[in-house]
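Pasting two entries for a bug report.
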Amino acid sequence: MEGQALALACREYADDKKAGNLLVLDVREVSTITDYFVIATGNSEPHVRAIWTDIAGRLQKDHAVPPPKPEGDRRNQWVVLDYYDVIVHVMLESVRDEYDLEGLWNDAALVEPAEV
């Protein structure tokens, strides 16, 4: 699965789980570590867990994309799924506010769902 399509699928699956403030950032011009960031907010630790497990499960089921080992804290306050071309960040709002990934990567282009 190509990077942008993968990123937008992750966004769609997070949206299906009612994740908040969803963003897909194209970081190809400003980063060498990945092509896209998907950033999503959960409103509780169980909600964060539901979002990332659904993304990983549906990518495997629908697109045969093997799930990566989730990284982050064990309490599900910030979980990262690294698909190499796409890195998914699912976090609580307080954590998202504290680390401000959008501000850190503010030179990255925003990818809208309709751009596929």
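Entry 2 (this is the one that rendered wrong in the viewer):
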Amino acid sequence: MKLFLIGGRPCSGKTTLARKLGEKYHIGVNHLDEFTQECINNSTANNPNLYKWKSMNLIELLQKEPHELFCEYVRTYEEMLPSLLRAINKSKMNVSILEGSILLPKFIDDFKKNHEIRVCYLFIDDDFVKERYFRRDYVQVMLGEANGNNAIRNLLERDSLFSEYINNEIEKYALPKLVINTNGDIEFDLKNLEVILGIGEHS
């Protein structure tokens, strides 16, 4: 299978750009946030990091200090990777776009074992991410709850640490990235992403 992988921090535009690429080139898109939720729903105590998200309230989970949340975030994706690889290997699609924060740079060699891949990581500044987060319904609900403000603050700081981690990792593994512009020009970002992924060659 040929895979176009789009990774990066939450709220960096992965879902929007992946959807547009899929529509333009008639390629199936897998939004891995949905896969993450399935893994959480099916988790047991044998998957301790995933299971926390199943068994605890989101606000409670986000009361830890950001660095600890970041470490748990990465470990959660490490627990999910074997299930994700099995699901991809079972797929009968010839070409697919995968987008999600789970696509850590250190996982890329695992995808290469059985598939032809192109990959790009999206980056965007913290202030723009914060603006996007506050548009989300669940964030507005959290803000109305006790300890909600602290949870959101820790979430944003965790994602900033995650972004720094990804940036360091893509340099380590010599992987491409795209810095998303903040003026709302999605078509400009889309064209740049097409070039990095070489996706126009397969339309």
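Dev reply: Rendering is fixed now. As a check, the viewer should reflect this: The mean pLDDT is 91.
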